[in-house]
Design goal:
8 helices; 4 strands
């Protein structure tokens, strides 16, 4: 559609503006999309979830370090608009037919204000491989989502996506399989989040904001999931909401 084409074109322009090795290399931008390099898919195995999540976190971390080093024109950062976030959650909840209970936690979170580069959608599903002529294989994060006032340029937006994968999103959506140890994966990734902000002390609000976005992202995933997988993904969103409650 015209709207979809414009959104994908904006994604291509966003990718071109950064041009870093941990993102797809864009060959050209079109009026309704873009052409990028050919990459290799990664076969997801639920038994190998831990390595997949570690590779995801590592690639995201490397990409963040590259920002500003080789970028052509840094795309503008977008600040959080709480009213926009509240409205987005309300609409999302209506789309997946759940009560928008997530909004009641907004007032309990002191939201970070430091804006930074975000990918917007760093999940296992968006990891691909670039095989170079010298035999080196690199992991690449595809399909970014440029920031908006509801999903802004805050690190917790990306951290929430990683938690979404750690909680078994890909297994639930594509395989209909639940991970018995998903809570352990989530706990380990929350440790990584805590370590990332350690210089400023242990920031409980970062954990809270991360889990808030993890719940929201999981509901976003449910919105486009096959009908027979929606219920399990929504239930996992509720599970993550319970974790958020534990941190309040």
């Amino acid at each position: 559609t015209e709207r979809t084409g414009r959104r994908v074109q904006e994604q291509g322009m966003w990718l071109w503006s950064y041009g870093m090795e941990h993102l797809p290399w864009v060959r050209r931008v079109l009026h309704n999309g873009y052409v990028m390099e050919q990459l290799e898919p990664v076969e997801f195995d639920p038994a190998e979830t831990s390595p997949s999540i570690r590779a995801l976190w590592s690639t995201l971390t490397k990409a963040r370090k590259c920002v500003g080093v080789k970028s052509r024109i840094n795309a503008p950062f977008v600040a959080l608009d709480r009213d926009a976030l509240h409205a987005y959650v309300k609409t999302l909840a209506a789309d997946v037919q759940v009560t928008p209970t997530l909004n009641q936690y907004l007032k309990f979170i002191t939201w970070p204000t430091e804006l930074c580069w975000t990918h917007g959608d760093p999940i296992i599903d968006n990891v691909m491989l670039r095989r170079r002529a010298n035999g080196i294989v690199q992991t690449v994060l595809i399909d970014p989502i440029p920031p908006t006032p509801a999903v802004p340029s805050l690190a917790v937006v990306d951290y929430g996506r990683v938690i979404q994968s750690a909680a078994g999103y890909e297994s639930l959506r594509y395989l209909g399989v639940d991970l018995d140890d998903w809570q352990d994966h989530v706990a380990k990734m929350l440790d990584n989040v805590a370590i990332t902000t350690y210089e400023r002390g242990f920031d409980v609000n970062t954990i809270r904001a991360t889990l808030f976005y993890a719940v929201m992202h999981m509901l976003r995933g449910a919105r486009t999931a096959p009908d027979d997988r929606k219920a399990a993904i929504i239930q996992r969103a509720h599970d993550l909401e319970g974790m958020l409650l534990d941190w309040l």
